[in-house]
Amino acid sequence: MATLVDEKHSADEKISSAHEKPLPDAASNESPGLGKDFVDENAIIITGEDAAAYLLPMRDDGDPALTFRSLFLATGLSAFQAVMYQIYAFKPTNVSIQGTFIVLIAYFLGKAWAFAFPRGDLHLARWQSKDLEGKPPLWISIASFVNPGPWTLKEHAICSITATSASAAVASVEVFTAQKLFYDMPLTATTVICTTISLGLFGYGICGLLQPITVWHVEAVYWSCLPTVKTLQGLHWQSVKNSKPLRWFWYCFGGMFFYEFFPSYIWPWLNSVSIPCLASKNTTGSTAKTLTNLFGGATNNEGLGLFTLSFDWQYITSFQTSLPLTLQLHMAFGYFVCFIAMLAIYYTNT
């Protein structure tokens, strides 16, 4: 009897173990039954380790990243991004240009390049189908060099990373701007170019030394970069027909594109709407000045801008929406402390 019970117990264990599914490894990007090329949509992202394990797949299509097309577009977009960042940095209200903006521009330019120029892969496949011997003609090699095939994710990423890195030069230019405006110091183009390059190389060297902390660590998740990465993957790995998130992305993109004409050109007051200021627009004297110091902020150096609403996507951007709620609460607390400190400094004249 004991033997029969033991055999039945062992058989039940085998059946139950056969129906059990292995849990995904927290250190990998694999989902149950999906593999490393997919992410687990049911996973709850709480920590940086969760984001590294479940949020982004480890898919690699093996496409070349450094091509003539990617380097050419990356160079042009770097110049464009650097100029745009300089312009926005010296506006009365500083506006940061997010990576998603340059991702979309690079996407359209890359698609246009792949469509406008002769496709080297198509001509090579057509030539090989004729069973010809020897090397392909020179014009096919040139076409493959200029336009190797469809616009790929890695080429797209090279353009985005290069252009975003070029925009970081605004920090060094501010030094030269202060020297020119406030100290009237003569500057040459050679000095500015060499200094900017040396600062960039020094910064990249420091980042290389700190890779174990800033890159390899499991908690080293740069939340503001996640929208850019997900946009890149969605544009290349998903289709509008089969992907609901991608469809909604293009719906929102089109809506925001046409909506932006209203706050930029038609109704600029949408940039900053302050209910307390509108409610007290007839107030004069010291009361009006106090209200302006507290709730004003539509123009530069006007006030703290408390409880001010903005309906302009140019100022809202996508940066804040990608941050964890805990980090947003910490930032809000920091802003609150700064508000109190600025009021104390201003009214005590210290």
UniProtKB/TrEMBL annotation:
The chain crosses the membrane at residues 66-89, 95-117, 248-266, 327-347. It is found in: Membrane. This is Uncharacterized protein. GO terms for cellular component: membrane. One of its GO terms (molecular function) is oligopeptide transmembrane transporter activity. It is a multi-pass membrane protein. Residues 1-23 have a biased composition (Basic and acidic residues).
